[in-house]
Fold this sequence. Notes:
Blueprint: H1 2-25, H2 29-33, H3 44-53, H4 59-90, H5 96-105, H6 111-125, H7 132-139, H8 142-155, H9 158-166, H10 171-182, H11 184-199, H12 203-208, H13 217-225, H14 234-255, H15 259-265
Helix pairs in contact: 1-14, 3-14, 4-7, 4-8, 4-11, 4-13, 8-11, 9-10, 11-14, 11-15, 13-14
Amino acid sequence: MLYLLYFRCVCICNYLLILYIVCKCIKPHIDISKGFSIFPGSFFIRNLNKILTQENLFVIEGIRNSFFIAFVSGILTTYFSALTAYAIHLYKFKGNRFIHLAILAVMMIPSQIAGIGLVTILYSIGFVNNYWVIIIPAIASPATFFFMKQYIQSVLPYEIIEAARVDGSSEFRTFNQIVLPIIKPALSVQFIFAFVASWNNLFIPSLIIQDGNKRTLPIIIAQLGVSDPKNFDQGARFMLMFLAIIPTVIIYLIFSKYIIKGTTAGSVKG
C-alpha cells in the first residue's frame, strides 16, 4: 500500500514537471528570465523552428539516435535479464547461489566507476563513436535481473515447465513461448524503466560519441546549456526538453496498464 502511494506521488510530481516544461517552452527567453508564470505564451512555433533549423545541432538525428539506442537497449536488457533470472531460478547447479550473489554485488558498484573503465578500454582499442558499445553493456542490468527473479519466483509454477519438457519442448522454446507470456507484466514494467534510463543517459554517450550527427538528445540538450551567453535561449532549450519527454510519455501510455500489476505481483509470493 505504501509502495502504491509512493508510486502515485512520483507520477504527480512527473506530471507537474511536464506542465512546468510546457509552460516554459511556449514563451520567449525574456519572459522565462522573469520567473515562472502560468499564463501561456505564443512562441511555440518560433522556439520549435529555432531548434530544428539551427546549424550543427542535429535535433532530428538526435531524437532518432536516442530512440534507437533506448529501444534496442530496453528490449535486450529486459529479455536477457529475464532469461538469466529464469535460469538462476529454475536450474539448481553447483555455484548457483554464488552467481546469484555475484550479480547482485555488481549493484553496489557505481555506474560511473564502471563506465570510466569501459571508456578507457574502448579508446585503447579504438572502438568508439559506435552505438553498440553503449547498447551491449546496458544489457547487464543487475537491478532488472533481481526484479525479474523475484517476479518469476512468485508467478511461475514449476509444474508448467515439467509438462513442457514431457511434451518435448526445448528449453528456449519453453522460455519464449510459455514463460515470456506469463511474465509479460514484469517485462513491460522493466522495459519502461530500461527505456527511460537509456533515453536519459548522458555520461557514457558523451564520452563515446564524437560525430555531431550521431549525438543523442541528452548531449544536444547539454550542448545548448553551455552555448554562448549572447546566443543562449531558454525558450529553445525548454522546447528541446519538451521534445525529449514526448517519446517517454508515449512508451508509458502504451505499457501503463501493466505498471501497477507488474510492480506489485512480483513482491507477493503465493
